[in-house]
Amino acid sequence: MIYDNKYKFSKYNIEAVHGDEGRTYLFNSYSGKGRWIDGPDLDDIKDKRGIDLGDVPEDLADDGFIVPETADEYGSLMKEIHEINRKSDTLYFIIATTKACNYRCYYCFEGSHISNENMDPGTMEAVCAFIIGKCKENPGLKSLVLQWFGGEPLLFTEPIRRITQSLAEYVQAKKIDLRGHITTNGRLLTPDLVDEMADLYHIKTVQITLDGTASEYARIKGCSEDDFLRVIDNIRYAQDRMKVFIRLNLKDNLESLKELIAYLYDMKLKVHVRISHIFDLSQNPEEYLASYREYTEEHRELADFIREKGYLKLFGDISKIPKRRLVCKANACWHYAVDIYGNLFRCVEKITDPAYSVGNIYEGITEQQLDRLFLENPLYDRCGECAYLPMCLGKCTMERLIENKGVDCETVKRYINENIKRTVAGK
């Protein structure tokens, strides 16, 4: 019998850490809250129904560790995810200006597609018309974000200038906040260009990838060690005009990244550092999942290094598990990636492959089945009962459903548990 005034143990509780004297650190993956709980108190609620709210600490319900007995936790999570994926007061457009690049990073997913082709004026005009059309479909729109991409977008900046200027009058009249972001290797991000981008083209943030100190940087990117120093100089200037994110790609370069992190810290740069995994979708599923396992091991070692050396200022809390309701913007209907020809994509990492295009700026979405895979992101049956689901969300749609790489669930769980443990240890 179900009582509306009774509670049950949440299906999203994780017993993350077992401490002294029978205490357990309980983490709820839905609420993102964690707390220590004594053994007897945990025994009173674990896997139980019909819990009387007056018999347990009040914050257990407030923080989601126990929920009303009639609650459909999975249904609530799916509804919340669906609403976020379908509705936003912000539109995001990733726009490639060129296929050209001045570097040759060995891991780049665009590698074999690099050429000297640029977006032409007619496509620039059509991109503007498409964006304005999407703005009109969202009457409650508050923000418009243009994320400039390449190739190397600073090799051909005309689309940044023309598209931003063409949209300026419309967004001003509609009181829409226009913000720009650029993903660049930073070599051409000179002080003059930084000032132009910040003052005239609404560029608020920039992401630059550094994969090691000078010698490793030059090896990975096919450039000179002097290029590394030029990029650092450009970052020094840019950090006072826009928010600078430094991406560190972690793959067989652990020791070099340790050196780089120490270098960035000693330079007292005002940057925000992120660690990322290099995906190689050409690998077979076994190789791909093995690569992910290797990444989690290296990430764990790097996270421990950052904490031990006191470099957390660069990262925030590197081990903090965020409350997630979106795996990737590729799963959201308010996000589009546009190549230099005007083709539309959900996943930016497939922007060079027409087979993954979901439409174009002239006709809109034309590949309905592929688009639905991204937007609906159907989960495996086993996901429905998994305590880690609100943080994992099935992981990348491209990897799991389209490239059929699968998910190494045990590695994902172990990775999350280790990060929870580090968070607890830091308190």
Can you characterise this structure?
The chain is of the alpha/beta class. It folds into two domains: 6-71, no CATH class; 81-338, TIM Barrel (Alpha-Beta Barrel), CATH 3.20.20. It contains 14 helices and 16 strands. The protein has helices at 39-45, 59-62, 73-86, 121-136, 158-173, 191-200, 214-221, 225-238, 254-266, 285-309, 368-376, 389-392, 397-402, 409-425; strands at residues 6-9, 13-18, 24-28, 33-37, 51-52, 66-68, 90-96, 143-149, 177-184, 203-209, 243-250, 272-277, 335-338, 343-345, 359-360, 364-365. The strands form three sheets. It has a ten-stranded mixed β-sheet with strand order 12-11-10-9-8-7-13-14-15-16. A hairpin with a 4-residue loop joins strand 13 and strand 14. Helix 4 (121-136) packs parallel to helix 5, helix 7 (214-221) crosses helix 8 and helix 10 (285-309) runs parallel beside helix 14 (409-425). The longest helix is centred in the last third of the chain and has 25 residues, at 285-309. The radius of gyration is 24 Å and the shape is globular. The two termini are 41 Å apart. The mean pLDDT is 91.
What is the secondary structure topology, with strand pairs?
Blueprint: E1 6-9, E2 13-18, E3 24-28, E4 33-37, H1 39-45, E5 51-52, H2 59-62, E6 66-68, H3 73-86, E7 90-96, H4 121-136, E8 143-149, H5 158-173, E9 177-184, H6 191-200, E10 203-209, H7 214-221, H8 225-238, E11 243-250, H9 254-266, E12 272-277, H10 285-309, E13 335-338, E14 343-345, E15 359-360, E16 364-365, H11 368-376, H12 389-392, H13 397-402, H14 409-425
Parallel strand pairs: 7-8, 7-13, 8-9, 9-10, 10-11, 11-12
Antiparallel strand pairs: 1-5, 1-6, 2-3, 3-4, 13-14, 14-15, 15-16
